[in-house]
Amino acid sequence: MNPSSWLPLALAAAAGAAVAAHSLRLRKAGVEPWVLPLGDDAPGFLGRAFVGLVAVWAFVLVTWAIVPAWALRSLGAVPLLVGPGFAWAGIALMLGGVVMVAMGQRAMGKAWRVGIPTSDKPKLVTDGVFAWSRNPVFLGMMLAAGGVTLAIPHALSLAALTGTYMALSVQIRLEEAYLESWLGETFGAYARGVGRWFGRMKA
User: Fold this and answer.
1) 199 falls within a domain
2) Distance of alpha carbon 1 from alpha carbon 154, whole angstroms
3) Number of structural domains found in the chain
């Protein structure tokens, strides 16, 4: 039996609410967590691309919840991925991604930001999930996006997954370049020992 078509949207809404609550706690502590640029330079273009991707994912989730048959018919079903096994695997992957994002946020504490805080000297977090991934929040986002694509298997979700991977890959490199400019060899040594997405490496 397939999971409810509302389940992916419900999970995404719960994750969004958790991020909003964490952001509110940071603001109450005097920290502005949302520093994603939206200007006309390269980082601003990337920031606007993220906003666009969020809108596309919202469309994917809402249309699936309300009119799943129309979504498959009109948005290009991927027959190879249609079936309850893939759908439940997608839900599980979404849950895993949400947990990973929460663990990354928790490990970062007040250092968590959406974007690059150019006015602050960043704190390098290397324990917890950061001992296994240099970017656990982004890894969690990719896992969740992959889960949505398995649960909602059509061409638009697949395109959004591809766009998300590309945008996150660029953002990761911008953030790591920023960290290296501040922290130098401290970050370099960490990067040589922990994978960009996942894994421990020999220094």
Assistant:
1) no
2) 19
3) 1
Q: Which residues contact 153 (CB under 8 A, 6 or more apart)?
A: 72, 77, 78, 80, 81, 82, 86
76, part of any domain: yes
pLDDT tens for 118-130 read 666 767 899 999 9
The Cα–Cα gap between 64 and 47 comes to 26
Strands (E), the chain: 34-35, 114-115
User: Are 180 and 187 a contacting pair, CB within 8 Å?
Assistant: yes
Quickly list DSSP for 120-131.
Answer: SPPPPP-SGGGG
Instruction: Kindly give, in sequence order, each residue whose CB lies less than 8 Å from that of residue 56, ignoring residues fewer than 6 positions away.
Output: 156, 160, 163
User: What is the Cα–Cα distance from 100 to 149, expressed in whole angstroms?
Assistant: 18
Write out the two tokens for 10: 């419900």
Query: pLDDT tens, 144-154?
Result: 999 999 999 99
Backbone angles phi, psi at 141, to 5 degrees: -65, -40
| Residue 201 lies inside a defined structural domain of this protein | no
Is 49:167 a contact under the CB 8 Å cutoff? Answer: yes
Residues in the chain: 203
Note whether 157 and 81 are within 8 A (CB): no
**What is the domain range of residue 118?**
7-193
Contact (CB, 8 A) for 147 and 94: yes
**Angle formed at CA 136 by CA 201 and CA 132, multiple of 5 degrees:** 25
How high is the pLDDT of residue 41?
Answer: 86
Give the single-character DSSP code of 194.
B
